[in-house]
């Protein structure tokens, strides 16, 4: 049904009908501080060259840390990582406290648990309305056997049900 007047919140609810995976994306800012955000806008772009994309609000305090030429890591979460997803979705406190981090390419902080992880360099940045669309060239990736993926649908976490 077509709406006569555009309602941004109704549009957001409509978009929420599409289930997505949940990621935490990490980087270092120009001051050397660890930065991390929860994002569900992750998607594959190309196999050759290996490219992924994700988007970040232009009003996010961390937006400048993810620009062209900056390294970042995408951590795809599994269903048992809902608390970690919520933690990185909040602003403020040190999101990396009490985590056993390692360093990846570009000294990016790497989280210890994930179902898949992609270490990237931002190859392109595009205007996307109220968001910035970031295209990353995958430099290295790793997968692990894990439980079900963490899914977000209609404003809350959901579970995957496999049919026989």
From TrEMBL:
> What is the superkingdom listed in this entry's lineage?
Bacteria
Keyword annotations from UniProtKB, A to Z: Monooxygenase, Oxidoreductase
**UniProt GO MF annotations:** FMN binding; monooxygenase activity; riboflavin reductase (NADPH) activity
Q: Where is the Flavin reductase like domain?
A: 15-159
Q: Which InterPro entries does the record match to this protein?
A: Flavin_Rdtase-like_dom, NADH-dep_flavin_reductase, Split_barrel_FMN-bd
* Stored PANTHER family: FLAVIN REDUCTASE, FLAVIN-DEPENDENT MONOOXYGENASE, REDUCTASE SUBUNIT HSAB
By sequence similarity, the record places it as follows: Belongs to the non-flavoprotein flavin reductase family.
Instruction: Please report the name of this protein according to its UniProt entry.
Output: Nitrilotriacetate monooxygenase
């Amino acid at each position: 049904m077509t709406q006569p007047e555009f309602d941004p919140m109704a549009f957001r609810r409509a978009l929420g009908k599409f289930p997505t995976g949940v990621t935490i994306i990490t980087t270092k800012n120009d001051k050397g501080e660890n930065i991390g955000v929860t994002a569900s806008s992750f998607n594959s772009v190309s196999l050759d060259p290996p490219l992924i994309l994700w988007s970040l609000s232009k009003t996010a305090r961390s937006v400048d840390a993810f620009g062209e030429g900056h390294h970042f890591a995408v951590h795809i979460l599994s269903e048992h990582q809902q608390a970690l997803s919520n933690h990185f979705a909040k602003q403020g406190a040190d999101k990396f406290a009490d985590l056993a981090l390692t360093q990846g390419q570009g000294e990016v902080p790497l989280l210890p648990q994930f179902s898949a992880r992609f270490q990237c360099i931002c190859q392109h940045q595009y205007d996307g309305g109220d968001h910035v669309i970031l295209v990353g060239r995958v430099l290295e990736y790793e997968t692990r056997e894990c439980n079900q993926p963490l899914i977000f649908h209609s404003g809350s976490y959901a579970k995957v049900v496999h049919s026989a």
